[in-house]
Amino acid sequence: MRVVVLSRTGKVPSTRRLVEAARARGHHVRVVDPASLQLQLGPSRGRLVRAWKRLKTPDLVIPRFAPAAAPFALPMVEQFAAQGAVVLNAERAIAVSRHPIRCLMQLSSGGIPVPRTVMAREARALKGLVPRVGGLPVLVKLVEVAEAPRVMLCESMQTLESAVEAVLGLGHDVMMQESVRAGQHEVRLLVVGGRVIAAVERLMRPGRAGRNLSPPERLAPLTPRDATVALARKAALRCGLEVCAVDIREGKRPVVTAVHAAPNLLDFEPQDVATPIIVHGEQLVAEQTVQRRQGT
Question: Where are the domains of the chain?
Fold first, then answer.
């Protein structure tokens, strides 16, 4: 099987894990920087060109590019699919999952519980909507596709107004969301082909739950509850993602807080999660081959 991993470089840890797993299973793997591709369209079918040569369509494409590269890279993913390659994941699914408010809307419209969230373009409007998200403290998040979530914890109306006015003044849109409450904790589950294959819990220092907006001190392996597994699977299906990580805030009312189309595989180490992704890709390619032979 010919595999292309769309990534800036093979030195990215998650990309390296996928390349190693694919080669261990006997596949020919290439890491292709999306920026090195050219998309050519015309009267005939489109094609992808690299180094002035037409790029041969691989069997499997695994998108692993950063959000900043998405405007250019997503059309490349769509073109690969149009040429008959199996892609993990589809262009539209990646685009929706990487936009915070669109992702939550997609989940909510499918009956999947999400945190209480509001969006407005005026600081006064957001202040008036604080009761709708459970009261202070609240999280203020930028509504943009970024390398990492940009989040502020606001514990008073004064800090909320100052933060929102500053962000809006810079031309950014924001959304306000309920924060982590006592008795709640956050877990991340890796879903591959509709199955949860790994899960971790976000661990914080005592007394800092709901306050620490930087990366967690550590992630610990977790055996998730059946209800949490079912919720993660529904979220992945609703977003149309073959491979993703689903963040869930567990508590009395568990909610899906985010879905990641290109999860950091190192979050789930030492468990090998790259191999199951490659195996799932093999299965999808095999299914597509059978369908083509049957003419369906």
Answer: 2-89, 110-178, 183-260
Classify domain 183-260 at the CATH class level.
Answer: alpha beta
Q: In terms of Cα–Cα distance, which of 57, 48, 98, 99 is closest to 75?
A: 48
Output the six-digit token pair for 285: 């390619």
pLDDT in tens, 35-81: 999 999 998 889 999 999 999 999 999 999 998 899 999 999 999 99
Type of residue found at 30: R
- Residue 30 makes CB contacts below 8 A (sequence gap 6+) with 2, 3, 4, 5, 58
**Under CATH, which number does the domain 2-89 receive?**
3.40.50.20
End-to-end CA distance of the chain, in Å? 22
Half-sphere exposure in the Cβ direction for 296 (13 Å, CA): 6
CATH class of the domain comprising 110-178: alpha beta
CB 281 within 8 A of CB 86: yes
Q: Which residue has the tokens 């929706």?
A: 96
List Cα–Cα distances, 110 to 95, 113, 119, 235, in angstroms. 18, 9, 19, 9
- The CA distances from residue 60 to 5, 28, 44, 57, 79, in Å, are 8, 10, 23, 9, 13
pLDDT digits (tens, 9 = 90+) for 75-106: 999 999 999 999 999 999 999 999 999 999 99
Instruction: Look at the alpha carbons of 232, 234, 237, 239 in this order and tell me if their dihedral is positive or negative.
Output: negative
